[in-house]
Amino acid sequence: MNPGKALLLFTLLLFSSPLFAQTSLRLEDIYRNDTYTTQKFGPVRWMKDNQGYSTLEKNTSLDGEDIVRYEATSGARTVLVSAGKLIPPGQTKPLPIENYEWSADDSKLLIFTNTRKVWRYHTRGDYWVLDLKSGVLTQLGKSVERATLMFAKFSPGADRVGYLSKNNIYVEDITTGKITQITNDGSESIINGTFDWVYEEELGCRDGFRWSPDGTKIAYWRSDTKDIGTFYLINNVDSIYSQPIPLPYPKVGTPNSHVKVGIVAATGGATQWFAIPGDPTNNYLARMDFVPNSNEVMIQQLNRKQNQNTVWVGNAASMEVKKLFVDRDEAFLDIHDNIIWLENEKYFTWTSEKDGWLGLYRVSRDGKDFTSITKGNIDVVRINCIDPVSGYVYYIASPENFTQRYLYRSKLDGSSLPERVSPANQSGQHEYQISADATYAIHTFHNTTTPPRISLINLQSHQPIRVLADNKEVANKVKALQLNNKEFLKLDIGEVVLDAWMIKPANFDLKKKYPLIFYVYGEPAGATVQDAWQGGDLWHHYLARQGFIVVSIDNRGTKTPRGREFRKSIYGQIGILAAKDQAAAAGVLFKKYNFIDKARIGMWGWSGGGQMTMNCLFRYPEIYKAGLAVSFVSDQRLYDNIYQERYMGLLEENEANYIEGSPITHAHKLKGDLMIIHGTADDNVHYQSFERLANELIKHNKMFDMMSYPMRAHGINERDNTSYHLRQIMMKYWDRVLK
Q1: Which of 286, 522, 591, 733 has the greatest number of beta carbons closer than 10 A?
Q2: Total tally of structural domains belonging to the chain
Q3: Which domain holds residue 79?
Q4: Residue 587 neighbours by CB under 8 Å, 6+ apart
Q5: pTM of full prediction above 0.85
């Protein structure tokens, strides 16, 4: 054979062989080249007539974005606002659109642009109003500092816009441009109309003011943060001298902000305050909004332990407050945003676990009458749509398989059992953005082997009208890798059966022994064992390609739809029960599978998972030989009070378990290998956790590996090349300690 032809044939055979396919998954393709990034669709806004939706599309000729409308049934496309209409006077390029909002009468458009991060989200920037009839484009807040506006929103009559700047609230007349400053005491310590770090992080509070239904008043939160302790992050990277970054951050057992809710006229003047009983520094005003078509405000007040939610109604004229009802739990309560008013405000919806399952209730206006809507042993994961006209609520649940999610519906009057809407032949995760009349939906389906497929569907028949993003290209790329699929397992540890998944190595041989790496989270804020795409979970598939078995187990207490008892069994014993469950499940796994090399067992996790990794490694050295902990809490007393006290109780009542559940307490027991990784600018779990643990390990002469990422936050993904570098470091560690 001709040598050239022989070489060509060899090359073709090599590239088409299973061996080449198995070695073609590369870290740089996952974390640097975006090779497997999926196509998204949207953001989408359903129009008020429910017959079409608006979305953003590139206008290549103007280097901007058009806002376009698509008819749901026909697919007919109409440009509602062209990029050309969003070119400010004297400029040549359209405004980049970070977000947009239609006025109630669709006569005006509010554009959010030139945005900046506040903590984790882009909530500060510039706002412009486009009058759709006249075509006039006007920038708001011209007399305030550029890129400082937050949470701008139209008044009910669309003649004014309220917004926040530097912790004060303003109202601007769109026609005249007159700006009225309606709060004046905003400062570094006084926050009007938004929130401090911990309210945003743990209670999901960001936008902190509301227009009254008639547009004459504004209700808002005011926080006095002077008593909060200040934690300092240090920037050693961007200047020849270090720069301290002050972060007011209430740690476990320390004072909170003094928070109250007030009413002020939209034309300005003195604020009147609701006299809600209780110490304002030891209760949380977690939610507040006007009751529709009224002059009343509903306020939810959580106590410090977060096991009691008192619902108040305040009159915005008399400032009188009345207690509506109290929701209680022996463990903890979560805040839910599922309140919809029904039948001319005679009833409202409420989410509660009072019957042992997370269900939706219909509550009378006086708070005395509770009727169950979502009946039976079923947890409502998320409310998608409440349609009073048809009389149904649509929600995500999964009572039969806790690793999957499906759409269900129930009658609002509680007269029906839950009815599954998602088709039976699509096993996995379903997400919906539903039109207000529940006729149409943007439907996203995915599972561990199927990247998100986004379609417009007729919700009543669940029949697709057209595909909006199929992600076939990514699906084909991943399929060509010939990955071993995740296998979902049930592990019976005696007290409970736990869900788990396993990925086996490439060219798996049942007769061989393989090292195993557990991936863990284990805390109440999330779960890892889900039949979901999750970016293909290519990091764990990459580990499997290197010869490791990878397993993840959801212990008791993780956020899964298995009922109140499963989720809240972890109360008061974070780091204790989870570590026990993980160790017991590992024992079951080892008995079940002979191909696991019990001498080479590792575990890794991020954030709460990093804490759980070290709790397992230190407490059960006979099982776990190596651990890798990223962005972890080493001492639960160092973390923020709302999160930690919610799940552990107050420090003075449960200090022994705070200490027992913290990895630093058991650091002296380290026998195997440990690597710790942290970002020095982590505003969530402070670098302090990293340094204190390192100090304790040194004290006991324990050898370990450590890696710091300068000026990276909790996700360790800022600045050039970070994610790729991090995964290489992690991979080198596993190669060294387990291979």
Answers
A1: 522
A2: 3
A3: 55-178
A4: 493, 623
A5: yes
